[in-house]
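Please annotate the following for my students:
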Amino acid sequence: MNDQPTTMTRIVLPAMLNDRQILFGGNILKWMDEVAYIAATRLLMQRVVTFSVEDIKFLKPFGLGDIIEINGRITKIGNVKIEISVVATRELAGLGLQEKAAEAKFFFTAVDEHNIPKRIDLKNSEQEYDSLHHN
């Protein structure tokens, strides 16, 4: 089991900008979802799909050349869904200053081979998760 934060790093390129010359919001949401998916899959070692996304906040715009670091961390495990908190930080191009720019909570559910939701196998995942966080 992997309980370490999952991290992705990107750079904002010209093709990623919207008509206001800032990063198109759909790009950052896609990358945040990818990070959350990887975190959920690594922890549960089961097939998962995005169930919902909540509390999306775009706090600062990303500009051309900004470096984006996206971190996802498991925050809750239930019987049918898992919650991953994802934060995107921007590093201003050429300045090295970092600030939180976006955040959201992603919820995933385990599914079978036909993409039908099923209970999360907590026998191994939750016991290992609890032992990591309560020792």
